[in-house]
Design a protein that fits this description.
The protein is an alpha+beta fold and 370 residues long. The protein contains twelve helices and 14 strands. It has one domain: DD-peptidase/beta-lactamase superfamily (Beta-lactamase). A hairpin with a 2-residue loop joins strand 11 and strand 12. Helix 5 packs antiparallel against helix 6, helix 5 packs across helix 8 and helix 6 packs across helix 11. The termini are far apart.
Length: 370
């Protein structure tokens, strides 16, 4: 009896000592792994194997991917190519169509010369993933609420920080409240650095995607639609290949985005102060160094926003020339072999539009047939 009691006491002291000892990195990693298995992504329990007679044959079951298991939403459809035009309005249209060849992934382009209304469109009415280009609409919705006294640029709001979760495990990805920041800081982080947590903070402040959609509809922008916050969009990215499939969720047509940019520049929906702050912030965008800005002359001012998701890249913005002309441009690119190929397409199309508009504004315009 005494020996058993002593043995139990020694075991208890050893267990307590282990609990008080510092956790080594290896042990800490082990604890984290155990936590992940227990609370983040619990492993399925293996069911006991049913023993059947050798004479009984079981049907072969093909493995199914997670995407295959989920029903195809009504918002998703295959992209069907259409014949290219045989006649173009000008050399500029012909050049842009040639660059926007969709054989390596569909490309959408919309450009509007705000001084003349002259536009160039390729798949202008086809939805493309907005990705982070949606942050312009989110910031504009916040600024509209500032103009109407519902929110404030000096008011403080919490960052919305993503919490780890499995793809498609919930309709909305979990987030937690982070540091408090002013509305101005959130817009600057969202548009300059494409900060997702800051964007979701703005989105939460205005009332979520439905509030942005209401502002878009009220402004006459029917070709853009927001369905998810950025945390959910990023977590569930990659379910459908945008080079082959059209998903109307969180999408914009190039034409609608170019019209949104035009209206913002022309002061149609925001106060002069909000308009000026939004455009000045977009001019400071540091992402997409090899996209819209990269091949333009140094005296050109670009107020833009990039977007990047699985197999898609985009850049949308306002290009102001040295002589004061302004072009609203929206370019959405899928496929092209990777990030570098998509960036190169955006850069080449932007420069072609810039040169073509400059040439046409000098008084020359020629119709082209192919």
């Amino acid at each position: 009896m005494t020996k058993g009691l002593i043995s139990r006491m020694i075991a208890s002291f050893m267990l307590a000592g282990a609990a008080l000892a510092p956790i080594t990195p290896a042990f800490a990693d082990s604890l984290q792994s155990e936590f992940d298995r227990a609370f983040i992504a619990p492993a399925p329990q293996r069911a006991p194997q049913l023993q059947l007679p050798a004479s009984v044959a079981l049907p072969k079951v093909q493995p199914r991917t997670q995407s295959a298991q989920r029903a195809l939403p009504q918002s998703v459809r295959p992209f069907v190519t259409s014949p290219r035009p045989t006649t173009y309005a000008s050399q500029l249209d012909a050049q842009v169509f040639a660059l926007a060849d969709g054989s390596s992934g569909r490309i959408g382009v919309a450009a509007i010369d705000l001084s003349t209304g002259r536009s160039v469109m390729v798949l202008g009415d086809t939805p493309f993933p907005m990705a982070s280009t949606s942050k312009i609409a989110i910031a504009a919705t916040f600024l509209d609420a500032v103009d109407h006294g519902r929110l404030s640029l000096s008011g403080r709001y919490p960052l919305m920080v993503p919490v780890k979760s499995k793809k498609f495990s919930s309709m909305v990805a979990p987030v937690r409240a982070g540091s408090m920041m002013t509305g101005q800081q959130l817009i600057e982080r969202s548009l300059i650095h494409s900060d997702n947590s800051a964007t979701d903070a703005l989105l939460a402040a205005v009332g979520g995607p439905p509030a942005v959609n209401r502002w878009l509809r009220a402004s006459g922008n029917t070709g853009l639609h927001l369905d998810r916050d950025i945390a959910t969009l990023v977590r569930d990215d990659g379910e459908y290949d945008p080079a082959r499939m059209i998903d109307s969720r969180d999408s914009a047509t190039p034409k609608a985005m170019a019209q949104l940019l035009s209206g913002i520049y022309q002061g149609q929906w925001l106060s002069p102060n909000s308009r000026g702050f939004l455009l000045a912030t977009m001019e400071q965008c540091v992402t997409g160094k090899h996209r819209m800005r990269s091949q333009l002359p140094g005296d050109v001012v670009v107020a833009h926003k990039t977007g990047t998701l699985s197999n898609t890249s985009s850049d949308v913005g306002l290009i102001q020339t040295g002589d004061g002309r302004v072009y609203a441009v929206a370019i959405y690119v899928t496929g092209q072999g990777g990030h570098g190929g998509r960036d190169a397409k955006i850069a080449a199309i932007t420069r072609t539009l810039f040169d073509g508009y400059q040439f046409e504004n000098s008084g020359y315009r020629v119709a082209v047939q192919h």
